[in-house]
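Deliverable D5.2: sample structural annotation.
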Amino acid sequence: MAQPKKQSSPRKTGLRRSHLRLKLARAVNRTSPVKVKTTKNETGKKAA
């Protein structure tokens, strides 16, 4: 999935829209057999 654009002033926290992409990606992962990469920790291999 494409990365979200940042809103006008990049130094403020909370303006990056990646949280929206994450929300959608998790919704997709719940239902679809094709999984989408979310965060590094969520997507990584499960420990044996």
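Annotation notes: The chain is about 40% helix and 0% strand. The first helix runs from residue 18 to 31.
The annotation will be released with the project's public dataset once the embargo ends.
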